[in-house]
Input
Amino acid sequence: MRTYVIRRILQMIPLLIGISMISFFVLNLSPGDFLAQIEMNPDISSAVIAQMRAEFGLDQPVWVQYFNWLKEVMQLNFGYSFAYRIPVTDLIGGRILNTFRLSLAATILTWVVAIPIGVHAAINRYTVRDNILTFFTFFGISIPNFFFGLIILYFLARYGLFNLPVGGMTSWYHEELSFMGRMWDYIRHLIPPTIVLATSGMAGLMRQMRGQMMDAMGQDYVRTARSKGLSDRVVIYKHALRNAINPLITIFGFSISALLSGAAITEIVFSYPGLGNMLLTAVRQKDLYVAMAGLLMGSALLILGNLLADILLAITDPRIRYN
Amino acid sequence: MKKSLIVFFVGALVLAMSFSVIASIPSDYVVSPYPVGTIGETLLSAQISDPRTFNTHIAKETSSTDIIYRFLTSFTQYDPHTAELVPSLAKGWDFSDDGLEWTFYLREGVKWSDGTPLTAYDAEFTFDVIYDESVPTSSRDILQVAGQYLDYEVIDEYTFRLYLPEPFAPLLNSMPMIVPKHALYDAWEAGMYNETWGVNTPPSQIIGSDAFMLGGYRPGERVVLLRNPNYWHVNEEGETLPYINRWIMQIVESQEAQSLAFEAGQTHVSPVMPADYARYRMNERNWDMTVYNLGPTFSTLFVVMNQNPRGPHFEEEPYKYEWFTDLNFRRAMAHAMDKDTMIDQLYDGLASPQWTPVSAPNDFFLNPDVPRYEYDLDKSREYLEASGFTWDAQGRLFDADGNRVSFIMTTNAGNVVREGAGNIIQADLQELGMDVTFTPVDFNLLVNQLVSEFEWDVIIIGLTGGLEPHSGRNVWHSSGNLHMWNPVQSEPATDWEARVDEIFDEAATVLDPQERQALYYEWQEIIAEQVPLIYTVVQDSIIAMRNTVKNADPTIVGGWYHNIESLFISR
Output
């Protein structure tokens, strides 16, 4: 097992280099660079733009730019942001935590709600309750996040529901609050975006769980367990559920990669100072090194998430062995 | 007798006290003309995106300058009501008869927010930085006269002189924000100027001279500005302004969310989208606020046709080049702009038509009598017939050589207003029998086409204008890189472009305002006659302010914050 994990981690290195190379060249394939944005400004002459282009190294061939960048990244220097003129790590650092907090809250809410509902719906399949639960989760998946977000914001602004804030991460008087007050301030601001994010992921997960559970309930070993006279509770949770949950562990691995990048739209709607929002702007503005850092981080998380899922599978399912 | 004596003493005492207060205030300080208010409270506003830097010479976008210009000041500023240039840091200026020597007199006793005196040496340092070619600032282009840098000299602590190679009318307009030498000199000496005053700099190191100073910045959340205790404006009672203790600009990245934040009482002031206008007006009393329609903004929206012989696609389709350089064709296009529909559909009626390159608020230079092209498709047909265009039985338009009139119109994707305008224009042009394909593309792609590839037919785009026509030189001079229809020409391609070049070169050196006005009037007439750009409509600027904010006096030139030092919040 240990050699397997080490091998997988070593495999990450060429994989990440490959990903970075493709991303770098694809980012450069689309027309225009970072400075195209200011070329339409009548106040800025072409001389200043040419000077900035040379300063940023954007006047060099793409492969030269790539290898210069790679050399720096090998020494863990992710470069400067063109737009902010500060190190990429300074720019991204604070936002990683913000997004992580939001995504974690949403992921927990999604799983805590979706798994029991899925199991419940599978056990009570085709009943009215199953249909109602299915309807509500589908409502969540079919309504776009930005639209649901705006509706929630509208009700918060109009009717002051539960006195929750209209967007943001902290109140403007945040620094003046006590420690507990500050914590509550964070939580208050997290509630609306968490609901929006969680509802969109719930339906898929709940349907997966329901389907897997229904399959498992139809298996011979469940009938055997029942005929042994085991209680419903033991049959469902000890026999069926443990077998049904395997594919969901794989999904869980994938959802780790989305932790830092899956919330961009919701962040914009709720003015939440997250990473997704900033990376989206960086890609659109071609703030090259910020975009690259984001892409690398997303890729690394995806690979690690997959590895984690594989390890978890080996733990939960004794039939799986890596050698 | 006794009573009157007491009254006399008390009167004398009050008089003496008020004198002692006034005596301690430097006479060059500015006294606010607004009613006296009370100090305290926090003002809340919203802005659409994060600042990228707090360094005025690095800033290239309004999200940064919107904050930098709240803590730095210049020699001059625009009067918010009359749009004239009036004293700011300089209490006055004069110039030699030949217009080559300009002397600025700084206000005495003005201090930076950290208490250091602000002197002519700061101005000297500012010019040193601007003329340092390793600093990528657009001020260097603006402060070049006849291709040369200006000479400058500190006469004494409060007198600063500029020497010009030839007279330069937009000089007062081009005065830069003065930066503090004592805070930035070391970084500049060390070659680190471009990285100083970034968004990661501790706010206490950022020194200002305006009513507020930087107090804090939480990325993606808010910028906090604090009252500058050393500000050089006072009220009638001699109290140092501003009244507001703290100004918090929350970063809210969508207009809808800004609007909702205002509605929920989380901000004191907010821009109003045209679609929200009616609802806001209805709720003025409920929300205890006032909606101000400030009239047309400085923005523009226009249609431009490619008249560049270097366009690579013109080799295969030379007839397109013939159409776009045909004055009758351009005028036919101009008559096909349904401005009323644009105003109604794009701006809910809150916009007005634009006929010249000068923005509507710029009263002094705006020529009201230029030829206008009213929406009239019959006139368009007359112009097309005059150039030999014909229609077949299905109403399709062909040029004199029998080529079907068919071209691609584009704009930047994602800009709802420009896309909407494109759809309206496309419908009218199709009515004229033209085959117009409207395909919005990515902004970067569009800019690339405009400034270097030249492979485009018709583009809908806009620019932000200002009060000084000369700042549009890059667009109007045939050598300019934003001379969109045919950029960076070595020799002007047409006689009228040659004349526009002359006007721009001459108007920059003529100091008499009336003469400049006459020159720029002529330029607007030429542009209206030749229609290289077809102007469409310009939206109104609408803002809403809570009634608890007193002394509110928003104007189109100054915005709502031009008198920020005199605004106060009553409970």
Summary: Residues 5-23 of chain B have pLDDT under 50 and may be disordered. Chain B is about 30% helix and 20% strand. Chain B touches chain A through 54 residues (CB under 8 Å). The domain at 2-6+43-195 of chain B is CATH 3.90.76.10 (Dipeptide-binding Protein; domain 1).
